[in-house]
Model the fold of this input.
Amino acid sequence: MSRILFCEDDPSVHKLIRMALRNSTHEVLMANDGAEGLAMAKEFRPAVIFSDVAMPVMDGFQMADAIRADPELASIPIVFITASIQRADLEEAIRRGALSVIAKPFTVLQLRELVAAVV
Amino acid sequence: MRVLGVIALLIGLPIIVIGQVLTETAQQDWRAGELARVSDGSSAGAALVADRVDNVISRTTAIAATPSIRDLVAHRDVLGLEGALGDLRPLYAGDVLRLFVLDPQGRFVASAPAQRHLNGTDLSRTEYFIMATNPWHAYVSSVDQTPFDDHASAVTIAVPVLDGLRNPIGMLSAVIDLSQGQSWLKPLGALLDEVYVIDSQGRLVFGVSQVKGSSTLDRDLRADPNVLVALGGGDVRTESDDLFSGARRFVAAAPINIARWYAFAAEDGSKRLAALSRLSEGLLVLRLALLAMLAGGGIMLSRTVLKQQRIALANLQRLNKSKSDFVSVVSHEFRTPLTGIQGFSEMIRDEDLTTAEVKEFANDINKDALRLSRMIGELLDLDRMESGRMNQSRARVDLNALVSESVAHERANASHHTFVIELDPALTEVWADHDRIVQVLTNLINNAIKYSPNGGTITVGTARLDDAAHCWVRDEGMGIPAASLELVFERYSRLETGHTRTIQGTGLGLPIVREICQAHGGRVWAENNPGKGSTFHVTLPFSIRDAA
Done:
């Protein structure tokens, strides 16, 4: 049983993730934007972070940079959730140290499998 | 060539997003030191990134955005290909013999007319297609080596098939019969003595000759001493400038780049010019007659024809590009509400839920569906407005009443925010389109909500000016970068500036607002507040006479 953090600003997708993982064996934390995600990462030290890219206040990539810059957080793997799959976007995600990328729309099954695979 | 643009257009493939996921995880974490290297700008770092991306892609069942071209072909049942073949026919007046669909490695997937064997050759095993994998490559089959048809000569052109996100997913190869004469070559043929298409080995593919007694169709050009000069290299200039001036006029008219000029003596002693040009990877050898007058008359004619072809091709290319951009941007936006609709309905279908949970999820689906519906509506609206096809019906509109209604409607979606209304009782009616004004108010209020994710107060006010009604929406949110105050009114501007990732939405709301305001003779603009947030202002003239 691990602690995992999701950062997603869209209320509908945020709720979907929360509902889809409500029976998960892991402790699921939810943040609404990159700044909140960073703060929660610092406080709770999740095992994995799943983050949307487009978010207000601080976007996914900015948050990833901040996490990499903090020696105590830098080892936390990050998976990006993105609405756009183009090679250039994948490359940018990887350059920020992403473990992997999942595309929207994802099914609930895919989300749960991803969590099982990565955590 | 036109066909290339049209083939590209024909492939208006639907974007089917398969958000499939790593089923086995990319377990390799970054090795020590690698992570620092990927962003140091070195080529080793870039190679590492590329390698990693390939790894991610190869390990997923389909993290790429579209299915394979085999799936697409199966889906369209090859009849679609027959249709594509049929669509191409009028362009070439029957010159397109066959269409092949290839995978990204150039291997055979399907053909129209549908058949796997041709002249005893099993197409799925042929090496032929591997050669056709360079985008835009025109592989010219020589006279006696055409494996696929009985025609004397054919050229095969392979073009990449791109999905809406510009990922190459396969190739389309069209076999075009040249022996009937290409429509685009005909004007040149009428103008010139001789026109040849030869392949990169100098073998003749196709020729048109005005010169009596000369039959070029079964001649190997390499045996022609004149052409040897042209191909052999060495720029031979002669003293006759009028040869070149006629040639220059021709070049000005033709949409081809002349790489080299050769002047030489022909077997009858006349001086001739040959121009070597590359045209879609094939080679076109032109011979210009000494009689520039004849050429002059011919040039005028061909200039018109060729120019039209050029314009048509440019339009097709532009249309195709903007269609791709549009498709890629729109698909990006639609995916977020689709995620909710897909996910919540999946849980209703697959899980044992309480009635209350089912109703709750159904409500979430409904909200997302409405959001998607609104996005689509906005898209169509904007398109219609921009092309001037939007109908407006004007009537006397009570702006104060509309403001109150809009606020009442939108505040239901914004539980973190406080709404304040400041209406000017002196505001008389405006002559406007009721529904469009509602659209303006709704969009601006929604924007205010979006730009202030942390809540705060949203103020909507009206004021009566001398000749116009003034309305504003103020939020206490993050504000807008000064450089973007104008930019936010551009279509999808959010997706092009560096600030894009922080602001959600369709990217169309504000452009629509601007179109509507301008259609009413009014204005809309944004400014940042002295404190927090920004204010959007709209002015609507009381009558057309007062329009700005």
User: Anything to note?
Assistant: Chain B touches chain A through 53 residues (CB under 8 Å). The longest strand of chain B covers residues 168-177.
